[in-house]
Amino acid sequence: MKIRMLRKALVIIMFFSIMTFTAGCWDAEEINRRGVADAVFFDAGNANPIKIGVSVPIPGTQIPPVQGTSQQFEKRHFIVLGEGESVLEAWTEVQSNVASDIFFGQIRSIVLSEDVARGDINDLLEFIGRFPLIPPSTNVLVTKGDPEKLLELKNEGNYIPGNYIDFYFQVPGKRTLALPMNLWRVNSLLDKKWQDPYLPIIEQSQDNYRIAGTAVFSGSRMVGELDMDETQTLALIRGADVGYLTMPLSDGKMVALYKIKSQTKINPTVSNTGIITFNVKTKIAGGVVESQPRREISMDEKKKIEKEAEDLTKRKIENLLVKLQGLNSDPVGFGGKYRIKYPQQWEKIDWRQVYPTVRFNIDTEFSIKSTGLFR
Amino acid sequence: MLQEKTGIGPGLLFMVLYTGLFGYGVMQSPYVAARYMGNNGYWGFFLAFILAVGLIVLLHVLGKKFPQKSIIQYLPDVCGIIPGKILGSLYLLFIIFEITWTSSLIVQQSETYFLFRTPTSVLMLLYLGISAYIAHQGIEGITRLAAFVFPVTFVLIVLSVFFSFQNFELDNIRPIFFIDGAKIPRGTVQMFYPFFALSTVLMIHPYLTDKQQGLKTMLGAALLSFVIIFLVIISAIGNYSAPGVLRYGWPVIEVTRKANLPFLLQTFGLFFTASWLTLTLTATGLFYYVLAEGSAQLLSVLNYKWFTLILFPVIYFVMMLLFSGVIEVHYAFTYYRLIGFVLTLGLPFFVWILSVIKNTG
Predict the structure, then answer these.
(1) SS3 A141
(2) What secondary structure letter does DSSP report for A66?
(3) CA distance B175 to A343
(4) Is residue B309 included in any domain, yes or no?
(5) Alpha-carbon dihedral angle through residues A217, A219, A220, A226, given to the nearest 10 degrees
(6) B167 CB within 8 Å of a chain A CB
(7) Fewer CB within 10 A of the end CB, N or C, for chain B?
(8) What residues form DSSP beta bridges with A268?
């Protein structure tokens, strides 16, 4: 009886001692004490090597406008800056510049200046990658201008910048105009070594943001950029599911295609002399959305357009691959294809040394699947 | 000594085994597969499952040989009193190691993702307190709790794993049939650790009411856990690639954190983590109970309820001493996998061989 009582007493004491140490006490935080960051940028500072800026929305301004009126607030976010020798030092300055606790759990975009992108992004993203709250699907972008000015911008819709960029990438029709890249994927590409990262380039355009091309990397350093046309070609090789293609024909006519879908098969071979050749076969399908001068797309016309489209896309792909080899950047992932087919040889080579010397056999196949409402 | 008079049916055994196998096995499985075998590291886990089937058959045979006794009780009969007590103590030491290592893993996970400022000592006290409370309820209480949490956690885990395949790249898990020396056999040894939870059967088998169903039940629980963990490994490597997985301290949480439903749900990570935490705490309760019951049987004093209280400061002290930081937890993991492999497979095999030779049981 006594023992039973003692045991009960012990359980009760344990129960209450656990209650007093309730874990939430240490981590309790009032929600209105949080400064919820929605975008962050990294740049080289004036006096220090690292500069961080955090875009923080102003909570009261996030309320939708009264029906029938337009958004009444001048700007719905502000930027907090910090500089330092390390990312942590810069971050500490950011924290010290505001009363609230900057919360990274809702970040939508990370913008890198071209300066820092040409440095080592593996080291730069180390800090933000280790931060447990940052969503892994956060978009990562590069800007050629001043990232502070870019994120300061009050865009036409008065969206907070991180959300604006996120919406942009979620529109299916933009997948070939802007190749999105998430934080987790950048880290994965940096780790696996058989493919290089690429990041969309963001710039200001007509008081809005737009994606103006793609920054390509060799390992962890930005080495060049692709314009919009080259970005679309890269999307074609990588297998686009939505896209556009405008095509001047040899007889002076023009045809534009949409709903471009592509599928690429890459097959590496090694000759007796050790030359690595990649056979790249891209199948592209699309629908005619514009023909100038306006005309019916007959069977003959279809075959002619398809033949010319095959030649044009082949040329574009060849030109792009020559450029990428020159930059020693492999955003397509040819290294991965070689690794899969020749795993033992892969262990022995330095892909960075081999990639510029490989050869490509490009083959394209184009088919028109629809002509819209007109014949 | 008070011994439990209760019994558990095959359904309850299935639930509690699944809880232990999945809860203790899933979290670091992609890391171990990628670390030791690379992009096709899932084969190591497949081979480990085949070994586990052998272990389950062995456990079933031992269960039939000694239907009313736990391993602590029949070890002295088979090996002699002193060696039997020593082997029994080794078994219990391993259970202590499992409890402390896994509880520390839970604590580190909570510190990393949720409770940044809460002191480690408090989290350890809290989680160990929960496990002790669960263990204190006895085998029937533990199994009923496992059965209670099973449906919800199972659905959430399956959904999280399913959606984690969102950005899966087939190339990351290729070449599929590439054999690189002894990497896969070595990896199989390392990947056996999710099946360590089967060692609890040595203690709880006497409580199984329908012993004929024991084999099927254990195989079912192991198969279900295997399928889900196998999918998790494929998903993590398929998303990040093997070198990419190695970057993360918690690759499984990361791969489910990334899984989302556009415009509806930002991440499945929270659902997965809460489910894993629930299963793991329940499983720790089972291990704690096995330890308490085993200690009571080994020392033949008091009962398991007393030992849940007596062992509390011991386990807490071991946790604080050995695993107060995440690097210590990762470091101990290597030894845990190897020692566990030898003990989990070796002990039942040794006892079975000896019982056959001496014709005991």
Answers:
(1) strand
(2) P
(3) 8
(4) yes
(5) 0
(6) yes
(7) N
(8) A278
Bridge-based pairing state of the strands A245-248 and A254-270: antiparallel
Under DSSP, is residue A272 helix (H, G, I), strand (E, B) or coil?
Answer: coil
CA-nearest residue to A13 within chain B is B129
Break chain A into its structural domains and give their ranges: 28-226, 238-375
A11 touches B: beta carbon within 8 Å:
yes
pLDDT tens digits for range B55-66? 999 999 999 999
For residue B274, the enclosing domain spans 10-358
Q: In the numeric block, which tokens belong to residue A372?
A: 């819209």
CA distance A312 to chain B (A): 29
Q: Nearest CA to A231 among A161, A181, A166, A170?
A: A181
Query: Token digits for A145?
Result: 């201008």
Amino acid at B288: Y
CA atoms within 13 Å, Cβ hemisphere of A184: 29
Q: How many domains does chain B have?
A: 1
Spell out where A230-335 has E strands: 245-248, 254-270, 276-292
Q: State the CATH number of the domain containing residue B161.
A: 1.20.1740.10
- Note whether A114 and A142 are within 8 A (CB): yes
Distance in angstroms between the alpha carbons of the first and the last residue of chain A: 95
**What does the alpha-carbon distance between residue B279 and residue B23 come to, in Å, rounded to a whole number?**
5
Cis check: omega of the bond before B119, within 30 degrees of 0: no
Report whether pLDDT(B241) > 90: yes
**Which superfamily does A238-375 belong to?**
Nutrient germinant receptor protein C, domain 3 (3.30.300.210)
| Minimal Cβ distance to A191: which of B116, B244, B306 | B244
SS3 of residue A304 by DSSP: helix
Distances (CA, A) of A224 to A324, A330, B79, B120: 9, 12, 72, 47
Distance of CA B149 to the CA centre of its chain: 17
Number of H helices, E strands in chain B: 15, 0
Amino acid letter, A29: E
C-alpha span between A280 and A257 (Å, rounded): 22
Query: Would you call B122 and A26 a contact, using CB atoms and an 8 Å cutoff?
Result: yes
> Is residue B5 domain-resident?
no
B132 part of contact set with chain A, CB < 8 Å? yes
Angstrom distance (rounded) from CA A245 to CA A233:
9
What is the β-pairing status of strands A208-218 and A221-226?
Answer: antiparallel
Task: Report pLDDT for A21.
Answer: 61
- Expressed in percent and rounded to 5, the helix, strand and coil fractions of chain B are 80, 0, 20
Residue B245 and residue B234 in contact, taking contact as beta carbons nearer than 8 Å: no
Q: For residue A123, what are its two tokens? A: 């080291």
CB of A300 within 8 Å of a chain B CB? The answer is no
Host H or E run for residue B212: none
What does the pLDDT look like over A290-327, one tens digit per residue? 888 888 888 888 898 889 889 989 999 999 999 999 99
Flag the least confident range among A95-104, B42-51, B153-162, B217-226.
A95-104
A184–B240 CB contact, under 8 Å: yes
- SS3 assignment, position A249: coil
B159 φ, ψ (degrees, to nearest 5): -60, -45
Query: Shortest CA distance to B101 belongs to which of B197, B217, B235, B5?
Result: B197
Average pLDDT of span A3-19? 76
CA pair distance A319, A325, nearest whole angstrom: 10
Rounded CA gap, A202 and A217, in Å?
Answer: 16
Q: CB of B113 within 8 Å of any CB in chain A? A: yes
Chain B residues with CB-CB distance to A170 below 8 A: 262-263
**Two structure tokens written together for B61:** 């045979």
Q: Is B162 on the interface with A (CB under 8 A)?
A: no
Flag whether B1 is in a domain.
no
Question: What is the band of A372 on the pLDDT scale with cuts at 50, 70, 90?
Answer: confident
Q: Which residues contact B346 (CB under 8 A, 6 or more apart)?
A: none
How does strand A34-36 pair with strand A359-370? unpaired
Written as six digits, the tokens of A207 are: 């008081």
